[in-house]
Design goal:
Elements (H helix, E strand, L loop, with lengths): L1 E5 L5 H4 L7 E4 L7 E4 L15 E4 L9 H7 L2 E3 L6 H17 L1 H13 L8 H4 L12 E5 L3 H12 L3 E5 L5 H6 L5 E3 L2 H7 L2 E4 L13 H5 L5 E5 L8 H10 L2 E6 L4 H5 L3 E3 L8 H21 L19 E8 L4 H11 L4 E9 L2 E8 L5 H8 L4 E8 L2
Parallel strand pairs: 1-2, 1-3, 3-4, 4-5, 6-7, 6-9, 7-8, 9-10, 10-11, 11-12
Antiparallel strand pairs: 13-15, 13-16, 14-15
Helix pairs in contact: 3-6
Length: 390
């Protein structure tokens, strides 16, 4: 029986995929094997030794202590692309609101009514204050061409926009999804100087903190409209507010409000609505559950943020899953030890990601605890578990 602890309300469409004969799922589980979480902060959570994996129903994982998880051999998954369509649609909303000042115009109409004015008599004159450009034939710059950025790019092409994308880590899969008319640039400044609108779709890391600062903004076109539905910390708020004051940035649309931003003119601040659709929440929950199940039941890793992607069809009678440091001779040490113990290897897969690596070994014969302990005792091995197919 696998124990799964939930830390947020998870869509029943995902939870119902757990077979109750093999899984116990609740927010009160102890000594859990897996965790399902959305935005709850786990930074100070005391992980039990039993914990094998954390699956985040969403893309961002800044609420999870990745370094501590990696050191303990805990796989961390997210759900890239599950909320991509919802965010893509909000980007379109943000571009339209930033162009036409839809928010300001709605407030103005209400103010007329509150003041006792017959609003129908003043709209023709008042609407001139809210004139703004169309998106058609304008240039959109997209920083990050992953699951969300690629959808945004294709949408903008369909709207008749000229699209420039920047992503030094562009994967082959995402590149193949892009419309052939998208201009992928190698220098972000090429994007800055061309774009009438810029939207950012990258992870928040130590390297991306404050990357949209005064210097970056200075390379952008005057009057640019900037959309940030990724993470608030990617943008230096003080630099953005200064650029808004001078008109260098015409509008800033963000999903991460602060008291200062909300009070500033030309800022449209929303309460993190990017993935707030029932479809998105369901997609994320289903994907998070599937990743967790595949790892616990089969040892397969898909969409982990701290471990490499490794997947194999079942063979043999048992599967040994080994998380270890990415150092020379580990694979040789593992196979040599198994051979010495008389264990037949049916199949094997090994991949690395940064400082860590993952090896799956399908065994032709069942091993006893002594063999497992021998592998655990190898230098640089972090965690070992054995999955029995029968």
């Amino acid at each position: 029986m696998y124990r799964i602890k939930t830390f947020n309300k998870i869509s029943p469409l995902g939870l119902n995929r757990f077979d109750p004969e093999h899984y116990s799922v609740s927010d009160s589980e102890t000594n859990e094997d897996g965790i399902l979480v959305r935005s709850a902060k786990l930074l100070d959570y005391d992980f039990p030794e039993s914990l094998q994996a954390i699956s985040r129903a969403g893309a961002g994982v800044n609420n999870i202590p990745l370094d501590r998880c990696s050191e303990a051999g805990i796989a961390v998954f997210n759900t890239p692309g599950a909320n991509a369509n919802a965010v893509k649609e909000l980007v379109l909303c943000g571009m339209l609101m930033g162009s036409r000042d839809v928010d300001g115009s709605i407030r103005w109409v209400r103010e007329q009514v509150d003041a006792g004015v017959d609003v129908s008599t003043v709209v023709e004159k008042g609407k001139s204050a809210f004139i703004g450009p169309e998106l058609y034939r304008k240039s959109l710059g997209i920083i990050g061409l992953g699951a969300i950025g690629s959808l945004v790019a294709n949408m903008a092409i369909a709207l008749g926009m000229d699209v420039y994308g920047y992503d030094p880590f562009l994967s082959i899969d995402n590149a193949l999804r892009l419309d052939r008319h998208v201009h992928v640039v190698k220098d972000i400044n090429d994007l800055y100087k061309r774009a009438d609108y810029i939207t950012v779709h990258i992870h928040f890391t130590a390297q991306t903190r404050g990357m949209i600062n005064a210097e970056a903004i200075s390379h952008m076109k005057r009057g640019v409209r900037f959309i940030n539905l990724a993470r608030g910390e990617i943008v230096d708020d003080e630099a953005m507010l200064a650029a808004l004051d001078t008109g260098w940035v015409a509008a800033y649309i963000t999903d991460f409000p602060t008291n200062t931003l909300v009070k500033a003119p030309h800022v449209i601040a929303m309460p993190h609505l990017g993935a707030s659709t029932p479809e998105s929440e369901q997609n994320c929950a289903v994907m998070a559950v599937q990743e967790l199940q595949d790892y616990l039941e089969n040892g397969n890793i898909r969409n982990s943020v701290n471990l490499p992607a490794v997947s194999m069809d079942r063979s043999g009678v048992q599967r040994m899953c080994i998380i270890h440091k990415n150092v020379p001779a580990m694979l040789a040490n593992i196979t040599t030890l198994l051979s010495t113990d008389g264990v037949n290897v049916e199949n094997l897969s090994n991949k690395s990601k940064g400082d860590y690596a993952y090896t799956m070994v399908d065994l032709g014969t069942r091993v006893d605890e002594a063999v497992i302990e021998d592998v655990r005792n190898l230098a640089n091995v972090i965690r070992v578990r054995v999955i029995d197919w029968c």
